Amino acid sequence: MYVWPCAVVLAQYLWFHRRSLPGKAILEIGAGVSLPGILAAKCGAEVILSDSSELPHCLEVCRQSCQMNNLPQLQVVGLTWGHVSWDLLALPPQDIILASDVFFEPEDFEDILTTIYFLMHKNPKVQLWSTYQVRSADWSLEALLYKWDMKCVHIPLESFDADKEDIAESALPGRHTVEMLVISFAKDSL
């Protein structure tokens, strides 16, 4: 468990929008060490961190990140993409869902979007703020977004000062190609 290049870019996007975060309900999925979620909480958001319920060590890493950053009050829940669970059903409506490098394995893409779709029905105005590292030109979300009635806006990295090889005195994201996406329902309202 370590900080991935995409997490630094997503954290930069959050920092750029920090004045809009206080009081927002934010869920980070696939949180791992939870850099974006921790930053959002430090900026005043009401954050819930999640990682796979099938990987208890990942949930423990989330809890340790909370402790190390003096945020022991943050809720950590186990969510497995594509699975309906009591924890998923119990989540309150969210304003923003954070996802850093969760679009890693193409076979997981639909399970991720199924979970996002369910959460979007709790609040149709929720946005998924996601960064991913381009690993293959053959991987695409477009057909799945269309299937799940979602739209995607690509955010230029230079628009939030993330178009550098190092951000916030970190050597990340380095020379990795990282994309920033904002995903929402295709229709403005249901």
Report on this model:
- The protein is of the alpha/beta class and about 190 residues long.
- The chain is built from 6 helices and 9 strands; from the N terminus they run αβαβαβαβαβαββββ.
- It has one domain: Vaccinia Virus protein VP39 (Rossmann fold).
- The chain has helices spanning about 5-15, 35-40, 55-70, 85-90, 110-120, 140-145; strands at about 25-30, 45-50, 75-80, 95-100, 125-135, 150-155, 165, 170-175, 180-185.
- The strands form 2 sheets. It has a 7-stranded mixed beta sheet. A two-stranded antiparallel sheet has the order 7-8.
- Helix 5 (about 110-120) links the parallel strand 4 and strand 5.
SSE inventory with pairings:
Layout: H1 5-16, E1 25-29, H2 35-42, E2 46-51, H3 56-68, E3 75-78, H4 86-90, E4 96-100, H5 109-122, E5 127-133, H6 142-147, E6 150-155, E7 166-167, E8 170-173, E9 178-185
Parallel strand pairs: 1-2, 1-4, 2-3, 4-5
Antiparallel strand pairs: 5-9, 6-9, 7-8
Catalytic activity: L-arginyl-[protein] + 2 S-adenosyl-L-methionine = N(omega),N(omega)-dimethyl-L-arginyl-[protein] + 2 S-adenosyl-L-homocysteine + 2 H(+)
GO cellular component, one term: male pronucleus
Organism: Macaca mulatta (Rhesus macaque)
